[in-house]
Amino acid sequence: MTRRLHPDPAVAAAFLLSLICSPAFGLAAASPAPPEPPADVRAARAALAAGEHARALKAYERAVRAAPGELRWSAEYRQAAIAAEAYDRSIALFEELVDDHPGSAAVRLNLGYAFVDKIPSAGAVTQVILADRALGHFSKAIELEPSWLALYTRGNSYVFWPAIFGRTRKGIADLERAVELEPKESPAPFHAHAWIALGDAHWRLGDLDAARAIWRRGLDRFPDNPALEERLGREGEALDRLLDEHYAIGKRVDTSLEELWER
Amino acid sequence: MTRRSPTLLGLAFLLLPTPSGASPMPEGAGPEAPIAPAAPIRFQEIGERAGVRHVHSTRRFTGRHKAQVLEMFTAGGAAVAVGDFDGDGWDDLFLTDSDLGKPSHLLRNVTGDEGTRDGIAFVDVTAAAGVGGGNDESSIVADALWFDHDNDGDPDLLVARFGTPLLYRNLGPGPDGAPRFEEVAAASGLTAFANTIAAIAFDYDADGWLDLLFGNYFQPKNLLRLDTTKVLPEDLDDAHNGGGLALWRNVPAEGGGRRFVETTAEAGLAGHTGWSLDLGHGDLDGDGDQDVYVAGDYGTDLLFWNDGDGTFTDGTEAAIGFDTKKGMNVDLADYDRDGRLDVFVTNITDEYMRECNMLWHNEGDGTFLDLSRETGTCDSDWGWAGKFADLDNDGWEDLFTVNGLRSAGEENYIPLLVETIIRPDVDFSDLDSYPDIGGRTWSGYQRQRLFRNQGDGTFAEVGAAAGVDNDLDGRGIAVADFDRDGRLDLVQTNADQPSLLFRNVSPAGGRWVQLDLAGAGPPEGSNRDAIGARVTLSAGGETWLREVDGGNGYAGQSSLRLHFGLGDVARVDAVEIRWPSGRIERIAAPEGGSAVALDAITRIAEGHGVVAP
């Protein structure tokens, strides 16, 4: 019943952040490149290193409030909240920021991620509720700014829903739009994630031929992408096992977005 | 684990042909000489022929409240209880019904009677015994349990209800040989209304008298006369508005006889207010008294350590941690033969909710480790009962589970349900919050699973090959050797569907021993049923552990007779019995002989050793 944005940390951790930096994503509130950390972020990091989670959270919250559209500090804050199991506190902060900045797609996305972050701590039914809440905020982000990032995020989220819920085709629609927004020339490596998820959505619906066709097209554009190669290299139960594990309920999705900053 | 998606296998009731490859035993034939421990497990479904084809009906609700929603939340009640009510050495059956006016059934095992040697056979003696009632305008039969409440040597029958329980005292046969029972619940003090879904009997205070523990699902409101629609769990992962537990201590009645007094609070069990769905007891820490495991629907399971002084301590957090799953079943067994009882709990594992079952491996330090994934027992779909039993006598206890909630039309209820779940501010406790299910299926047409213990800490699912993978909406399981041939048979009950009797026709397995234990009775001895007795059997340098339980497993009570599959042992070196009274009795093998007879049923009486080979 749950779905996580990035079940496979090796593949998924980074996708979001990288997108924001690219003009293709178009999130106006996002900085094209992360700025130097402000004093509050430096203080939060120092507190974290000292194991002082409460102090770290407070410092991060000051930083996030000061720059609500800056995804990097928000992502760091959410990771600190996960470590402290302060999921509701994280959600409350971004709900407050959504009220204060109703036009910010980045804040909406962060609120959605905060719900995603809480999913592993919840029971099976609550996981559905949290996942649905996250989807709602991702949808708001798309309304505000139909960026590659927002479309990919919501589309990928839909893929986590078992087919019985009838949301997979919505995911395909989002992911096809995301692929369309991908730069024709020199796409960034993270753009491959939309191809991966789009193929996975077709697998979810049981259309393996369509899934393979998408993964192959993705691999043409992103040669040597390990996730695409792995999918195309497996068949039958081996492929099901891989993707079942990828979309497994109960695994924490890495929403740290570190891949983006590393880029 | 490979994903198992629900598969609509068709609405037709699977009427169980002999599984391909099975070679039914000649009627009356006993077990053959022990052969390869890896011999296949095979069952033949003979319910119709054996007189066990009872079609259960769940209660149909009427009135202004959402009847179908209540029916969904009360879709149990198809229970089975094994007990030798007439003391002839052949295990009999009691099968429940739940709909208004529908009778439950007492089935006498006549397999051993002269002229009835046609496999396993039962005759319905409900009318003569007068124990079929219980489904009236204010009550719904939900579970049943045989136990000798008055220590007179024959089992009495408890019928647990959404209502007040019924207790039928066994009076023995009348002049015409017909069974006679007397309903004594009220006279015995069992007058409290509860929505009881599970009942077990054990001697929690070790006074030699069997006590009762009830697992109650809903709060004690009569679902047939509701004055509110807010009766459902307030949270589907962490509900605390359920019926909790009720412990009834067996005490002397004025003027003789026995009665029950509620001791839930003083025993330390009143703090649990969740949706109890099943109960299990056993000595989990090896200290000589009976601990309790509670499977909680819509919230955490609980483990209560018996303090040995008539009280329990909640040890959940340290022992198993808190969970949010939908606990449905409790069974205890030493599946890996490390000398400690482990616990198996079914949960819901389906396309839309993958909780995974829990196989709690007893670590021996007061903690348990869930090894369901590692052992291959994680996935049994929407689980109900699960029972351990050595079905091939290879010395390792296998695990049979029954599954499935509601098999109906092709349309699925889940998409409709999820729209309710995600609705902002939905009140989960309100019947009116849920859409009617209509003719939809919900986790239906699921195959039953038989997990064969491979003796290396893992199980292999062999349900199809064994002939038990029907797709009925299973609820309860009872395990017993109904034809006394040394191979354990199975009864499966199903909601709104016929019960099944699986005769074990496995071509050949290992050696076996069955033990009937009889407690000496109070004041110094144990309860006559020997419930709670722990037996350690040694043979060929290996040991096996069993305990007599009083109703472990959802909607099912299995035989009190202990069954040991022993593989290819040549003799039994020793049998040690730790009686509930604390007495330790050891039966050693004579020079060149066996402590108890192989491939036979042996009766052991407390303080007297073997009294009948």
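qc> Residues 124-144 of chain A form the longest helix (21 residues).
qc> done
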